[in-house]
Design goal:
The chain contains 6 helices and 6 strands; from the N terminus they run E-E-H-H-E-E-H-E-H-E-H-H. By secondary structure, it is an alpha/beta fold. The N terminus is likely disordered.
């Protein structure tokens, strides 16, 4: 399943993202006539060796040219399910770029990642943000129904731009949810028709929601900043101070 190329001088310098350290990764999957509604954990090493970061490091060190196609074959090999039709066609990997406009409208754009691209050339943000989708059928009609399919050769720069757009959209959307949670908390404090118990319960629920949304927003900002710092350093630029 792995690339026939076993060693290169700088193989040990490859950065293996922490999200791969368990030997599996969460990806969406689309079969025949199916809309994907959740992500699935796909292992890429033997089940008995999962959750061993050194085994994962060894895999990429010995196979520095491990491609997207190599990894898709590994996902298929170790993914066990009760849907044989998922194995009929060759699996393809797509990136979903999420773009939220000023009006809050969400637009999805799907683009196929070339089989011969090195898997570790995919930005860590995309690997760790449920932005990658396996298409296990022969056409793109489901993807078109979910948004749109970009027809062109996906490059490393395209993936970096995709991560930037999605990260900014995720942060923007999360900040709006925080603002809405603050508004609801103020409403709970001042709604005149609440009884004392109703007000107390409503405030407690809103505070819990606000705390969750703030923690989620902080996480999204951290991940977005980490991606942008990483991309800036790769291009010899000054890392941004914040998103």
């Amino acid at each position: 399943m792995s690339s026939p190329f076993s060693h290169t001088p700088d193989a040990s310098n490859q950065h293996v993202p922490a999200c791969l350290s368990s030997g599996s990764i969460q990806l969406g999957i689309i079969g025949d006539n199916d809309f994907y509604s959740c992500v699935i954990n796909f292992p890429f090493i033997e089940p008995a060796l999962q959750h061993s970061s050194c085994v994962v490091e060894h895999l990429f060190t010995r196979n520095p040219l491990l491609s997207v196609e190599d990894m898709l074959k590994r996902f298929q090999q170790y993914y066990l399910d009760e849907n044989p039709h998922l194995y009929v066609y060759k699996w393809r990997l797509f990136v979903n770029t999420i773009n939220i406009d000023d009006n809050g409208k969400n637009t999805n754009t799907f683009a196929q990642i070339p089989d011969n691209m090195l898997f570790l050339n995919i930005p860590e943000y995309l690997l760790n943000s449920n932005c990658l989708i396996i298409c296990a059928n022969s056409d793109n009609w489901t993807l078109n129904a979910m948004g749109g399919v970009w027809h062109g050769l996906v490059t490393r720069q395209y993936l970096a731009n995709s991560a930037n757009i999605t990260a900014d959209s995720e942060v923007s959307g999360s900040r709006k949810r925080v603002a809405e949670s603050i508004r609801m908390l103020k409403f709970a404090h001042h709604f005149p028709e609440y009884t004392r118990d109703q007000r107390r319960n409503a405030i407690a629920m809103c505070e819990k929601t606000l705390d969750r949304e703030r923690r989620l927003c902080e996480h999204k900002q951290t991940e977005a900043s980490k991606h942008k710092r990483s991309e800036a350093l790769k291009h010899g630029q000054r890392p941004p101070d914040f998103v």
